[in-house]
Amino acid sequence: MRIGLYPGTFDPITLGHVDIIRRATALVDRLVIGVAINRDKGPLFSLEERVGMIEAECVKLSDETGTEIVAHPFENLLIHCAQDVGASIIVRGLRAVADFEYEYQMVGMNRSLNNSVETVFLMADAKHQAIASKLVKEIARLDGDVRKFVTPAVNDKLLAKLGK
């Protein structure tokens, strides 16, 4: 069984994330969505809320693709998380050249720690390349419409969280 790990903070999960998840299911039999606890980022949503949104969004994708998709919170090194879940592939989404520079460094470090885990980069679909959770939250905070960037369920949770 080929297991992939798609890590991120997912605060909140966006249509860009969903696009990468959908496309990653073609590469693996089981896709683990690694939900980084990452206290330094100070997420808007709690870990439980982020995991819940991911699980809700991925049920339909799992049914459509036949690929098992599970959410897995982690707070350790990414490469250790990959080992914990049995992943042989780390899936990373790229939006722009700036993403690649950071990701290139991460791949080098991860390969130094464990060269049996490969990293695969998937480019976000052109219509999703500008989407970033950080920007989605900022737009919503300032009363902008984020329905183009998240699913209706995530939009509702975001507005509720912001008291709107």
UniProtKB/TrEMBL annotation:
This is Phosphopantetheine adenylyltransferase. Its EC number is 2.7.7.3. Reversibly transfers an adenylyl group from ATP to 4'-phosphopantetheine, yielding dephospho-CoA (dPCoA) and pyrophosphate. Its cofactor is Mg(2+). GO terms for biological process: coenzyme A biosynthetic process. It is found in: Cytoplasm. Pathway: Cofactor biosynthesis; coenzyme A biosynthesis; CoA from (R)-pantothenate: step 4/5. HAMAP family: PPAT_bact. The gene is coaD. ATP binds at T9, F10, H17, G93, L94, R95, E103, H128, Q129, A130, I131, A132, S133, K134. Homohexamer. One of its GO terms (molecular function) is pantetheine-phosphate adenylyltransferase activity. It is an enzyme of class 2 (transferase). GO terms for cellular component: cytoplasm.
